[in-house]
Specification:
2 helices, single chain, mainly alpha
Length: 90
């Protein structure tokens, strides 16, 4: 099955075609999912590097606090940047 049109490549011409709106909705969903995955991977990498000094089987209290603060700051910074980008484009 083709992930963009929802139709398999060997389907007959009688199968319904995806509307432009449905296609755009599906594309937006896929882009949002890719962005979320990239965002989480970035947070994991940056916060792990910054906060985990001695990897082990569990987090210390200071490592847990550091990760929490790191994620909060990263999310806040991303929000500020997004608002600045979207407000300047209008």
């Amino acid at each position: 099955m083709d992930s963009f049109t929802g139709a398999s490549s060997g389907s007959s011409s009688s199968s319904p075609q995806m509307s432009k709106e449905d296609f755009m909705d599906q594309l937006k969903t896929q882009l949002a999912q890719a962005y979320a995955e990239e965002f989480l991977e970035t947070i994991r990498g940056k916060c792990f590097e910054k906060c985990i000094t001695k990897p082990g089987s569990s987090l210390s209290g200071s490592e847990s606090s550091c990760i929490s603060r790191c994620v909060d700051r990263y999310i806040e910074a991303t929000g500020i940047i997004s608002r600045a980008l979207f407000s300047s484009s209008r």
